[in-house]
Batch of 4 targets.
Target 1
Amino acid sequence: MADLLPPRLCCILRVTQPYFICLMRKKFYRQKKDFLTIIAPNKEIIRLVVAAVELIKRVDKMEYKKLPERLKIIFVTNRFGFTNEFFMPEKIWFANKSVILKNDVNWLASLIIHEAYHATQFKKGKYILPLSRLESAAMKIQKNFLRKLGESGNDANIAWAGGYDKKMIEDKISFGYFRNLLDLFKEDKLNFILIK
C-alpha cells in the first residue's frame, strides 16, 4: 500500500518503511558551537541558533556556564509549525523550523534557556515534578533572561496567551517525527553536511 502513496505522504506516515527511507535521504547541516551540536535543514537556521547562543554568552554568563550540563544538541527539523520537545536523558531539544524562523534572536535565546532548564527537572530516569508543573519553573528562568535584555518578563507569557500550547497539542505528527528522528540519529542513519 505504501508504494502507491505519493512520496510526500510517505514522509508523514510513521508506520511505513518509506517514511524511514524518506527521512534517511534528507540532508541536515551540522555544526559544533563550543559544547553544543546544532543540526538543521539549512545554514540560515544554524546561523540563527548560533546567534542566540552567542547572545546568552554575552548577556548571562552564569546561565551560559550551565548550558553544557543541560543541553548537548539542538535539532531543528524541516517541518513547519511551533512544536518542540526536550528529550532526556539525551539532552536533545527538537524544534520545528518555524520556532526558529518566526521568532527573533532574543526570544530564541530565552527559549533555549527555558528548554535546557528542563534537564534540571529530570532525575533517575524520570521528571521530578508532574508534567503540568514543569513549565512554570522553566518560564521563570526564561522571563529572567528576557528582563536582562530589557524586555518585559511578560513576553514569556505571550506564546501561551497566543495559543502556542494549543497549537502544540493539536500537532499530532511532530512528536512522533521527533522520536523517529531521535531513533535514526542514535542509529547513525541520518545524512549530515558538516559546517566548520
Target 2
Amino acid sequence: MYHEIFDLYHPYIGDKPTLYYLFLVRYRNNEEGSNNYGKSWRGRSGIVDKFQIGYSRLPVIDEILQAVGLIDIETKPSGRGRDKIFYTVNDPLIESQFYKNEEIIKNDLIEMITKRAKQGEDLRNILGKQKGKALCLNLL
C-alpha cells in the first residue's frame, strides 16, 4: 500500500495530504465485519497536535484526498455545536488500476482546484511538486 501512496498519489497530492492520509490509515478501524470498518475518527485534532498542519488547511487537504478517492467524509451532529467528522479511509488503487483511472483522478482533482481557484485560493504550495502543481499552472 505504501508504494502506491508514495509512487502514484504523492506526485499529485503533495507532502501534507500524504502525511494526513497516512495518519488516518494509522487510526483506521481494520476490524473485519465491524460497522465501523475503514472509519477513522481521530483526524483533525490528532493531526494538528502531532504535526505542523493548521486547522485552516485541513478542509482543503480533505478535499484533495476526497478528489483522488483516498477518503470519504461523513458528518454527524455531536451535540456540542459542531458536527463530528468521520473519515472512511480507502485503500489506494494498485498501480494498474491507478493508471487505468488516472485521467478520472486528474479531472476530479482539477475540478477541486478550479473550485478553490474561483474562491481566490492558489493550491500550488500544497499539491505535489511533480504533477499537482502542473495541474494548477494549466488553470492559470
Target 3
Amino acid sequence: MSPFEIALIALVSVLAVIALVAIRFPRGRAEWPLEARQTAWLLISGLTAVIVFALLYVATRDVRWPGTVTTTFVAVSLGLGLLLATALFLPQGLRTRP
C-alpha cells in the first residue's frame, strides 16, 4: 500500500466520522451534549472503526470469494449461532449500566 493510499484512507476516515457527527448535530456546539474529552474519545473510536473497515477491505480485495449463496448461507448461519449462544449464556439479554 502506497503512502498516497494511506493518506487517502485517513482523509476519508476523518471526513466520514465528522460528517456522521454533523448529520446528527447540525447546529454544532449549541446542541452537542458532550465535553471535549468525551468528544475526542468518540471521534477516535469512530476513526478506529472506519480505518479498520478500510484496512480489511484493502487486505481482502484480491481474495477470491465463494459464490453469493455460499457466503450468505455462512453469514446467516453465523448470525443465528451468535443469537443462540447469546440466548443460552445471557438469558436476561445484554444490559447496559443505568
Target 4
Amino acid sequence: MKKENSFVKILLAIFGLSSYLHANSLYGQASLRALPGVELFVHCAGDFEIKKLEGEIREKLKKRLENANVPIIAYNAPNNGGALKLLLTGFKKEEDNYFIYASLQLHQRAYLAVSHEYMDCQTWDIWKMGIFSKSEIFMETEDMIREFVNDFISANGF
C-alpha cells in the first residue's frame, strides 16, 4: 500500500508539473542559442538499398553543416555540444520509389530543475515521411539539415 501511494505521488508530481516544465523549457530554436557545435550521426535502416545510402547522406549533411559554419565537435566534449541524429528508415515501394520516414533530432544535456540533475534529451527535431525517389531522399535530408542550420543561425545571430 505504501509503494502505491508513493507511485501516485510521483505521477501527480510529474503530470502536475509537466505543463509548467514544458512552458519554461528550451526546445526548438531556443535550445540552439549558444550551442558550441554538434556531432553528426546518421543511421539508415530498412531495405538494403536504403542502408547503402548512409555514408553518402552523412557526407552531404556534414558538408552542408561545414558550409554553414556550424562547428562539428564531439558530443561528449567538455563544452557540451549536441548530438545531431538523422534516423532514416524505408523500403522500396515501386521501381524507383521508396517509402521513407526520416527524423532529424538534436540531443543535448539538459538540466532538470525537479531532480537537480543533467540528462540527455531531445531539444530540437523535424521529420518527414512520404514516397520519394533516391534523388529526392537526398534532397529531403538536405532540406532537413537546412532547417536546422537556419534555426542555428537565427538563434545565434549570425
